[in-house]
């Protein structure tokens, strides 16, 4: 009579032993909107789609700095990485250059751009799983003081990554390279006068406590990436690989809408907490998109001339970016 029970226990043990456990690094704090709405959403989708055969543990930037995460994933110390391309421009400009491409996941795939980026990162020991957009628009500035006159950031020290450098400089500001986790204390101590950031996460970081304004209009577009160590991906069976890629594709198609709605909710909440909108003058507002897009392409070309040059050709041929005049 014990045989059936013993058999069930053995079957359950075998099933559990077959489960693949993966470790992910995220470049964003684990409580941030991007980790929560993109990385953790992906983890949940994968675990559900695989019926628990694939599980993913999450490790934040307190374990490895965002600017140093590509190497340990390429080396296989971690299996997965959720990041932004600007955090590894010392290695390649391809990831950051995607921020000059209009939001449209289907076009990114159909044009061949997705496959091209995948092949590029394969050479770095990584497999591309997804390029989730962080909304239909990309960026804003969080400022201690309101914008007055033009150029709107004249004389201010502004946190940013390499993505924002040309825009901040074009608006008269001085860029300061800094991770998101260091912004609160730097604003509080007056080390910086503001921060360039995406449209989500200001409230998560509590920047409303040390800055009084967020800028309008928003500008540009921005993407994050989900990568996997290439050897670890190739070691999975075809069904597991398919789950990771299919859930990545699904994620790409839903994040823009989710984060757009969250941005609207966050702005209302920030206003209730005392923050106010501050607006760039028309002369500055009209050139925001051109500043950020051209600056991003140039950043990418400076770092990886041939690869980013090809990216830009694909994007321009498929009307996925503003063409140079």
TrEMBL record:
InterPro entries: DctP_fam, TRAP_DctP_sf. Residues 1-19 form the signal peptide. Keywords: Signal. The keyword Cytoplasm does not apply. This is TRAP transporter substrate-binding protein DctP. Transmembrane segments: none annotated. One of its GO terms (biological process) is transmembrane transport. It comes from the Bacteria. The keyword Signal applies. NCBIfam families: TRAP_S1 (NF037995). Gene3D superfamilies: Bacterial extracellular solute-binding protein, family 7.
């Amino acid at each position: 009579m014990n045989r059936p029970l013993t058999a069930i226990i053995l079957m359950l043990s075998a099933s559990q032993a077959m489960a693949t456990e993966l470790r992910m690094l995220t470049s964003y704090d684990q409580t941030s909107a991007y980790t929560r709405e993109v990385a953790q959403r992906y983890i949940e989708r994968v675990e559900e789609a695989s019926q628990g055969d694939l599980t993913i543990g999450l490790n934040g930037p307190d374990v490895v700095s965002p600017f140093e995460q590509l190497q340990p994933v390429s080396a296989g110390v971690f299996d997965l990485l959720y990041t932004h391309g600007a955090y590894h421009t010392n290695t390649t400009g391809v990831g950051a250059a995607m921020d000059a491409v209009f939001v449209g996941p289907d076009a990114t795939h159909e044009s061949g751009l997705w496959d091209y980026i995948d092949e590029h990162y394969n050479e770095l020991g990584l497999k591309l799983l997804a390029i989730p957009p962080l909304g239909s628009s990309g960026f804003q500035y969080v400022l201690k003081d309101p914008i007055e006159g033009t150029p709107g950031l004249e004389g201010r020290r502004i946190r940013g990554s390499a993505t924002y450098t040309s825009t901040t400089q074009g608006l008269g500001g001085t860029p300061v390279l800094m991770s998101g986790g260091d912004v609160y204390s730097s604003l509080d101590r007056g080390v910086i006068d503001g921060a360039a950031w995406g449209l989500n996460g200001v409230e998560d970081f509590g920047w409303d406590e040390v800055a009084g304004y967020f800028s309008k209009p928003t500008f540009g577009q921005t993407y994050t990436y989900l990568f996997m160590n290439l050897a670890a991906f190739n070691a999975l069976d075809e069904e597991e690989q398919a789950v990771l890629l299919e859930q990545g594709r699904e994620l790409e198609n839903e994040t823009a809408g989710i984060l757009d709605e969250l941005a609207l909710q966050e702005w209302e909440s920030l206003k209730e907490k005392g923050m106010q909108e501050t607006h760039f003058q028309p002369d500055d507002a009209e050139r925001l998109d051109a500043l950020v897009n051209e600056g991003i392409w140039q950043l990418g070309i400076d770092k990886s001339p041939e690869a980013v040059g090809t990216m830009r050709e694909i994007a321009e041929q498929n009307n996925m970016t503003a063409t140079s005049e």
